[in-house]
Amino acid sequence: MAETEQRKKIPLVPENLLKKRKAYQALKATQAKQALLARREQSKKKGPRFKRLESFLNDSWWQKRDMVCLRRLEVKPHALEMPDKHSLAFVVGIKRTDGVSSVVQKTIARLRLKKIFSSVFVKVTPQSLKTLRIVEPYVTWGFPNLKFVQELILKRGQAKVKNKTIPLTDNMVIEEHLGRFGVICLEDLIHEIAFPGKLFPRYLMVLVPFSPFGGPSCHQEPSGLPQGDGLTGLSG
């Protein structure tokens, strides 16, 4: 009996107070929902954002520059010769393409470099060299060696499976998507990327564009990464 008396009694809350608390919580939830809907409606009704005159002038300058570069390519289509010893290029987007010509924007999208400082592998062909010349003011690129390709795919390689980005750590994923082409493991994929052949575009579509390396201040990598010091075009 003494032990039961020493136990602390649980304080009872009146039923009407519990009802008031529940009603208050429901009211707050309703008010929060209404406030969210009101903000969404207000954002829809907002007028067009005004741009400064300098922004229009800057966009116009970049578009004119793009058109000049395209005309030069038409006059001198063979200005950039095919390299003899290299068949693979590594391209990094280092400048934003807001306000540039539609040709440049479509080319950047085709290269999958919409995100600044993202990077992709490109098979060196006359057509790909012409493509790189179109976006030359906005990218830097070079010729990677086998060690660089291997380290990059092993450390940063990712694949897109069912709208999800997953790291390339499971050979089952590679075999499932590329097994019919004879690629069943990560080593096979690295070899096919480093020494591109006819099926290179299919292998490349499995890889997600590589994430940024650290922006324009990154230096030369020991594995052969082109310098990212802000210089556009061919970096070696």
From TrEMBL:
Which keywords are on file for this protein? Ribonucleoprotein, Ribosomal protein
Q: What is this protein called?
A: 60S ribosomal protein L7-like 1
Pfam families attached to this UniProt entry: Ribosomal_L30 (PF00327), Ribosomal_L30_N (PF08079)
Task: Keyword check for Transit peptide, yes or no.
Answer: no
InterPro entries named among the record's database cross-references: Ribo_uL30_ferredoxin-like_sf, Ribosomal_uL30, Ribosomal_uL30_euk_arc, Ribosomal_uL30_ferredoxin-like, Ribosomal_uL30_N_euk
Family to which this protein belongs = Belongs to the universal ribosomal protein uL30 family.
The chain positions of domain Large ribosomal subunit protein uL30-like ferredoxin-like fold read 89-139
Q: Name one GO cellular component term.
A: cytosolic large ribosomal subunit
Q: Which GO terms describe its biological process?
A: maturation of LSU-rRNA from tricistronic rRNA transcript (SSU-rRNA, 5.8S rRNA, LSU-rRNA)
Q: Which GO terms describe its molecular function?
A: RNA binding; structural constituent of ribosome
Domain Large ribosomal subunit protein uL30 N-terminal eukaryotes, by residue range, is 13-83
Q: Which CDD domains match?
A: Ribosomal_L7_archeal_euk
